Amino acid sequence: MINNFKRVGFMPAWKINKLAKIRYDVLSDVIYSFAFPDEGLDLVIPNLEKAHDIVGMAHKEKVNVMLSVGGWDDFGKSHSANMLRALNCEETMDILIENIIAACYDLSFDGIDINWGNLGDDVSRQEDIETFMSRLSVKLKSLNMPLSISCFGNYNSDNKVVSYELASCSEKVLDVVDFVNIITYENRKGVRATNTNLKMEKELTKEIIIPNEKTVMGIPFFVNLSMMAYEEDIKNAKENGEIDSEMITCGREVYCIDDDQFKQKVKWAKDHAIGLNVWEVTQDFAEQEKSLLTKINDELK
């Protein structure tokens, strides 16, 4: 196994009945997703007791647990509205930051991940996001805790990692975070200007280049049949036997990517990034011979 290579698994807070799917033997970090501020900027951590259990089990196996703040819930609803409240001024920013730090103390989380959700490409809030991230970074660094962000993106033919989340991945933000979790889902070739959770009709012409030395590349556990832009690609791949077992998640039909694509992405991360992440661990196959986390482990040896 590569020394110090990150193997990050996101664990959805709404899938607490599947804690057995967390492979502490493979993962270096678990990211519990998602906590979010309420209207008063108190931090809500769903299924708090289970989060505590995960931290305890992970630490016994010498696995770190980070808390992801923001993101979405199990119905695909973004927490952007309450995240916006925290960006109103430095006072509200500090309220949320203090509540985040308190959660780290109370539950012994090892670090924080921020997912700006639908705000990621909102350039009108870029300066506010930069200020918040800088202030949070100072607090976490004083506690020797890492700070990461999660954003959608992919690598291109030049082996550069690009994202279109111009606000959440600006140069100032990239300077203050320890690493970036690149989230990828689709069975796509190269990089497209739109992807899941970015509006399909929106023209995104600018891109942010994520330094490879801060990249934790996403390894997609599935492709999404319901996204119209990819429907023909997925249909053809299915008919050609290039896609594995079907499943349903969030009410959508999805398929696991083919073996060669999966191994290619793991190899790319091994050669060009500081780690990889998977969204999300409960979507793995139960059978060890099919397990994608087992394949990751084998490819990294």
Give a verbal description of the structure.
- Helices cover 31% and strands 23% of the residues.
- It has 301 residues and is an alpha/beta fold.
- The strands form two sheets. It has an eight-stranded parallel β-barrel with strand order 1-2-4-5-6-8-10-14, surrounded by five helices. Strands 11-13-12 form a three-stranded antiparallel beta sheet, with no helix packed on it.
- A hairpin with a 2-residue loop joins β12 and β13.
- The radius of gyration is 18 Å and the shape is globular.
- The model is unreliable at 187-203 and 226-230 (pLDDT under 50).
Shape: globular
Q: Whole-number radius of gyration?
A: 18 Å
Main sheet: which strands, in order across? Answer: 1-2-4-5-6-8-10-14
The profile of the biggest β sheet is: 8 strands, parallel, barrel
Helix and strand pattern: EEEHEHHEHEEHEEEEHEEHEH
Portion of residues in beta strands equals: 15-25%
Low-confidence parts, pLDDT < 50 over ≥5 residues? 187-203, 226-230
Q: Which structural category fits the helices and strands?
A: alpha/beta
Query: Helix count, per DSSP?
Result: 8
Number of strands: 14
Mean pLDDT: 84
